[in-house]
Amino acid sequence: MRAAVLEGPGRMKVAEVDVPLPGAGQVRVRLEGCGVCASNLTPWQGPEWMQFPTEPGALGHEGWGVIDAVGEGVDGLAVGDRVAALSFKSYGEYDVAEADAVVKLPEALAGKPFPGEPLGCAMNIFRRSDIRAGQTVAIVGIGFLGAILTRLATDAGARVIAVSRRPFSLDVARRFGAVETIAMDDHWRIIEQVKALTDGKFCDRVVEAVGKQWPLDLAGELVREGGKLIVAGYHQDGPRQINMQMWNWKGIDVINAHERDPEVAMQGIRDAVDAVASGRLDPSPLYTHAYPLERLGEALDATRDRPDGFLKALVTV
User: Fold this and answer.
1) What's the whole-number mean pLDDT along residues 74-86?
2) CATH number belonging to the domain at 2-104+283-316, selected among 3.90.79.10, 3.30.565.10, 3.20.20.70, 3.90.180.10
3) What b-and-e string marks burial along 272-292, b requiring 16 or more CB atoms within 10 Å of the CB?
4) In 3-state terms, what secondary structure has residue 179?
5) Which tens digit of pLDDT belongs to each residue from 171-230?
6) If you write DSSP's letter for every residue of 73-113 in order, what string do you get?
C-alpha cells in the first residue's frame, strides 16, 4: 500500500509498505480519506523532539473508510461496514484501529467525507462549554472548529459574536449563524466593540479557538464577571502567560475543553454522526480543499498559511 512518511522538516514522501494486519480486537480500514489537523503543523516544522523518518501514515488521525478485514474476537463489525476511525496512521491507504475506536456511518452519510475525530472534538467542546439559550457567546477564531461551534451555539439559542482575522472566515461565521462579526485586528477596539454590543456586560461564554497567545489574551478580556472561558485552541508551541489578576477579579471559570479519555472522544464522534446524519449539522461547506496523498505536503502548507477561502483540508486516497 501507499503511505506518507515525514522524512524531515517540511519533507514528505509516499512510500510503498506492507498492508497492516488487524490483531485481536482490531479492524483494518480501507481508507477513503483523512482530514488534515493543525496539530500536524508543529511536527511538520521539525522541532527538536521530533524523530525522523516517521512511521508510514503517522500523524493522520482523522480517517474514514470501509472495513476490509476483522481481527479475532470482534463483534458487531463486519467487512463492508463504512466507518469513521480514531486511529493514528491514516495518511495512507489502510490503517488498523481498535474495534471500540470506530463508529459505523449510516446510509444517510453514504459517499460523504466524515473526518470523525475533529467533528467529535467539536461536539465535546460544545458540551463542555455549557452554552444555553439566551446567552451571549463570543467565538474567537473561525476556522473549521469555530464555524461548527458557531452553528451549535446558534442552534442552542445563544447569540454568537464571531471574532476572526480573515473576511472569508467572518462570512462563514455569518452563514453558520453568527449575528455579529468582528475583524480580529486591534485588541482594544475589539474589546470596546464587544462591550458596546453587550451593554457593558461582556459575554457569558467565550471560546478561544486559535491556539495562540494574543487570541487567548483577548478571550479573557471578553468574558463577563462569573462567565466561562473555554480554551478550545490547541496550544502546542510553548508556555502561555495569562492575566491572572483579571481572571481572579472576574471570578471566571476556565475550561480546557480538550478530551483525552478515549470513551469520551468516541461519544463525541457518535454525537457528530447523529448530528450530521439527521441534518442538524452540515459541515460540507467547511471542507474547502482536497488533495491526493502525494500532495499531503501542500495540504499541510495550506493548513499553516490559510490562503483565502481555506478552512479545512482533506487528503483523499
Assistant:
1) 97
2) 3.90.180.10
3) bbebbbeeebebeebbbbebe
4) coil
5) 999 999 999 999 999 999 999 999 999 999 999 999 999 999 999 999 999 999 999 999
6) T--S--TT-EEEE--S--SBSEEEEEGGGEEEPPGGGTTS-
